[in-house]
Give the backbone structure.
Amino acid sequence: MSTGWSLRRRLQRRVLVAVALGWLGSLGVGIYVIAHEMNELIDETMAAQAQMMAAVLPVGTAPDLRAVDGLRMRVIPPGSAIPALPTQALAQDSAAPSESWHVYRATNPRDGSVVELGQPTTARHKEIREAARALLLLMLPPLGIIVLATRRTVDGALVPALRFAERLRERRAGDSAPVPADDLPRELVPISEAINGYLSRIDALLESERAFAANAAHELRTPLAAAMAQAQLLAEGQGGAEAAKRLNTSLARLTNLVERLLELSRAEAGIGSTSGCDLVRIADLLVADMGASRILFDDSDFETLPAGVDADVAALILGNLLRNALHHGTGGVMLRLQPGPLVIVQNCTNDDAAFHHGRFEKGTTSSGAGLGLVIVNALAKANGIHMEFRMRDGLASIQVAFPPPTAARSNRLAQTHV
Amino acid sequence: MRVLLVEDTSDLADAVLRHLRSQGHAVDHADSRDSAEAAWDVARYDLVLLDLGLPDGSGLELLRVRRAAGDRTPVVIATARDQISDRIAGLDAGADDYVVKPFDLGELSARLRAHARRAAGDPSAELCIGPYRIDRIGARVFFDGDEVRLTSREWAVLDALTASRGRVLSRQALEERLYAFDDEIAGNAVEVYVSRLRAKLGAEVIETRRGIGYLVP
């Protein structure tokens, strides 16, 4: 069960709050307008009523104070005492609204008696409150409808997404085919596209691993078969010295292949990225290991040439390049160091020579593993090393641009080699 | 029998070559598709042992081409491709058998013999000629329970004749089954081996059809 926030609840809450606030705002404005209009209407009605009452009042009417339709009416004959009201009697015909009362005065033209109609302001406020309450009650049914509509809309919109999740959940571990997402709403399509893109990348990776495993098995079985067959001949007493020699050759090929596979495994797993190295020292060691007589090493008079990669990474790259050059070249190999730091490996080749970058790709006459450049490229990619391969006029040239060392690494190396 | 070995890994080819030759088979070796096609075109092989990953093409494609052209030579694929799908593809292309590297040389040669026997129309493992019991799997001959020792060449001649029992095999046909391209053939080699066999098994085992060839009745 998910413990995250609920899209449905959040949407419901926000829609409800937004609608309620909007409604209340509209209601406030509405009540203000209604109150204004009601005041005007009641004032006009009171004025008309006062004039009408004054017109119909019989001559000689005694002072009076009575209630008429929720209003208070005061009749003041000329020269008589003024009946008590919370308001002062007005001096002339007019409307006199105040905070607590609205009063209207009209004079009977026949005898000069005065009629005043008054209404407490609280009575008007009560009317307005009732109107506002009615409007508020009217808002509740639409809010309920909105809650239901939101819930149903969100639930309906989420059905395809839940179906998509169910399809994904029911998949077998190795199934990386795209998940159908035709019925997803447009807003959720980026998620399905991202998931299907990810599955596609996983599929490509798995396919690559499967191909690699099949190719590795294939490449390992052949020298193994040769070694076993030669050993069997020796065991049967048929082989002699030649079989022993060939057995040795087969085992050497097998060893080379296993070493390259291990190097590739290390390269792809990601090795050393924490320390720098000295390319002069690494090149010295490699040249000594691989036979100095066939490698012309030009260190450009560098005492040290720091690079910002791990020593194992540099050694694997340069080792594979030198091994390839020695194995596939037609003569000696030039290994040159240059500022940058750059390392250049050059050798002469046959006219039909070519660089083979794919796994287990190799020339028709090659007895190599077909992994050297794969290892080099994997390490270069993982360690920010730029490689340039050139094959022109029978000369193969590879330039390796190592990243420069960081200041700390550079100082440490300088201290080490001074 | 005469075998065409198509294998580009020289160490492996050398071992298989030595082993098969030690059993008296005439073996030609081709290390590419082109050379395999050239050899297949000019010689009649009892069996072809075919690698799939050749430097200049696919062994599977070569097999398809030969089968499409009507060639019925038994073909055993010997390859490092060990997936079931690879095997199915090989057998569907017309291979008679599929051997995955690494393999045992003894098992390999037993399979080759079995396919050669089947192709010759008699897959039985044993047969009797007069008082002799011939073990075609073990490449041995017994007389009254005792083994009669034969050299690999003598066995090869006897095997070729018994495989075509009742039919005359010419001297040239026997030579083709005994010698590969690079073998030196003595002019009377077949007569010599037939003579030795008669000395060991009795004159009545192999009959001579003068001017035509030999047969095991």
About this structure: The CA atoms of residues 14 and 38 of chain A lie 35 Å apart.
